[in-house]
Amino acid sequence: MKEITVGTARVPYRVLGAGRPVVLVHGGSRGSQGWDRVAATLAETRMVVLPDLSGSDAARDDGGELTVELLAEQVAAVITDLGPGPADLAGHSMGGAVVSSLAESRPDLVGSLVLVTAWTGRGDEYQRQAFSLWRDLARDADAFARYTMLMAFSRAYLESLDPAAVTEHASAYQPVPGRLRQIDLASRLDVRDQLPRIQAPTLVIGCARDVLVPPEYSRALTADIPHATYAEIDAAHNVMAEQPIEVAKLLRDFIA
I want to staple 204 with a disulfide (CB 3.0 to 4.6 A). Which of 171, 214, 222, 242 is the partner? Predict the structure, then answer.
């Protein structure tokens, strides 16, 4: 585990494997461990870098408001800390807006870009209501955890688990301050004006069973980025847990 200081934040990051770096950026979650199953496969042929940005459980900062620019600056600092040369970037969910912003503002740092069930704008009324309810449920830790699980996973995936595993999944999502800061950012982020200026080759991955960021969001995102391509996986929002092999294959093939 390495750690860098960016402003008031202490940002840890893990490095697996060797070769040209691919940086996997988490969204609103506990942190980089959401990428672990995908990272293990990618690390067979590449250096995989897993930062924990402000709002994650492992990062430490002043507890202030999160912004896309703040998180993008942290990712840029991690890439710079690795040494000379650009990195390939993948961002999941809210992390997609972070890496999109960085690709537009610092094209020298980004070799290619993969956006996994990401959204980069204000969303629609369904999504706005979903975020508002999510935030309100913070008063009830159990309700917050179960709601988060339902937003993250598909019916088919939860049905495939035994009851103890379902309970374990739910217990992982608690309304800690960092998580609430992430939800606040997710509910207001908007980097749509930056998308047409992205120069890096881009792959957008949508998920057919995602109720929070439905695939039509991903297809619209693809249309907004010059020369972006689109792929779709039969999974829900937490596709790295439901279909890690498929995510790793799409990533590996694209960044190769």
Answer: 222
